[in-house]
Amino acid sequence: MKKNIAGLVVYVLALMCVSQLYAQSNASSPTTRNEIGLVIGATEVPSIGLADGGAIHLNSSLALGVEYDRQVLGRRTALFGGIDFVASPFDVKASFPSPNVSPQYAYLFLSPNIRLKFNQGGALQPWLLFGGGYADFAPAQPHAGGVNVAGAGNAGTLEFGGGLDTKPLVRLGGISLIGKLPIGARLEVRDFYSGQPNYGVPTDGNRQNSIVLTGGLLLRF
Which of 18, 35, 108, 110 pairs as cysteine with 87 (C-beta 3.0–4.6 A)? Predict the structure, then answer.
């Protein structure tokens, strides 16, 4: 009974929130509904525990990302639907791995999501994000152990995080069909909770966190 009441309360609150966003979107239609983020930063992966004890310690890696979002509801408090792409041009490298452990792996994440942005149109615009999609890992072959790790890196992923956008800081002119393109800034922290690459040795779990810290440009049109 208590669970039913709690579920009803959550449903009513969610309905009220969506209704408010819908009312705001009808009150005034924004001139720009689309956003593209071009970001760069680093990915941090916590140490991976091994089934027989010990751990694999992973170094930071360069992360590059492209993000597309479209505003679907709201005005000051706005709901966006979009998709994030994050990949590393340099492999995530293990720190002093044993010979039977994969020494490095490449990755990419492709994740549809929803983004709830507050103070839309203001100087500073904080937001929260939740989504899920596809993760792909390409581990390098261990130097010993006789385990083939190639082609064993596809997995699903959850994505959640938050960030801060700014109002347009500059306007880039001379672009046909777009006119003067407003460009702001974005800072963000996201966690991709996914399956693991094949490290070549048994680990004490089958999931891992990839924490991506990035910043860059936000284009609106």
Answer: 108
